[in-house]
Amino acid sequence: MRILLLCGHRLMLRNMVSSGLASKLPGEVTVVAPLADWKDVPTEIRKGLRFCPLGNSAGSFRTRLRRYLRLASLVARERTSVTYRHKVANEGRSRFQIAVWRAVRRVHDPEAIGRRIETLVPPSRAARAIVEAVRPDLVLWPTLIHQADDTEVIKAAKALGVPILAAPASWDNLTTKGAFLVRPDRLMVWGEASREHALNRHGFTPEDVTVTGPAHWDVYGHLWPKGDRVFVVGTSVHFWADERQMVESLAGEALMKGWKLVYRPHPSRLKEDRAWVGPLTSVELDSRLGYDLAPGFQEHIADRVAGSCAVVAAFSSLVIEAALLGRPAIIPAFAQSAHGPGGVLTHSSFEHMQSVVEWPGVFLCRTLPGLIGKVRKAVAGTLEYDPAELRRRALQIAFADGHAQERIVEAVKCP
Asked: What share of the chain is helix, strand, coil (3-state, %, to 5)?
């Protein structure tokens, strides 16, 4: 069996290759990824895997076109989804295109038209060359859904009759990224919640969707010893404009109370966040930043979460990771959005977050003093919640019982 493992983003290499999954897959595995990212994968992990550079297989025309077609999907879904209404409102540079798609929506489905336009554009020569060089029996596609170069390779594989097994990269992708422009044949998803999204939001049949759990979260299959740190996790520039103010306030409190405060900036903000964190003597900057491809990265994150009395995060997947270990999450719902209208609280109404914010052990704080008060209780051990119930809820989102990689290997073997 020949498998083409398509990793168009550095995150996918971390989740599917550095996690050890790729080496467990049956047959011959060829990783298709950006060359610069592949070079950062340690040699001991690359051993036994073939490689083919991804390059810019879509080209500038197809990349621009897919941004336009993705916008059609967001507009098509905004009528029935708070998530997509917010996303469309944030597309400040695309007002004219939004107006066009809204006009189209009065008489036709913009998403259906977008798919039709996609079918009229043949796959690029570069994408066909990749697939023809690998000659795969299966394409395994960890995906953010909307990346242009990924989609180009998938289109070329479909044109050559190669089946596509896709794995959305996170539990929220099926409710936040729009539709697949090129539809995979089967899906592997994180948990039962994502399975429902695949069936009800994307029209997959039950037979085509397998709940495997995330490949890189097998480390959460057992409980870890609890610690007394406060773990603050940054989010992207799109959601949290006043992150610095909040971290500095917590740092002042930590200095007075003797807390152990660890801060992990979002990978997209490393340069700017490192600069202002440096002078905060009461804050420990996490030692493994960005999309780290070295072995043991997820174990490092699990250790950080487990060794904390609470995680402070604005709707990050770290909220789910904390819950899997029975740790509470404190969410700064007062924070301002750095991009577009509304604040962080808006994201609590997004489809993938509506149930999460109701979990015992997930606390929405509408003021900074309220957040600091919750952190004080967490450090003192007086924050009331049910760790076992919190983990049970999280397993519905991410089936992280320690056997996800085994289930993925079995799904790959299935015809």
From this structure: 50, 15, 35
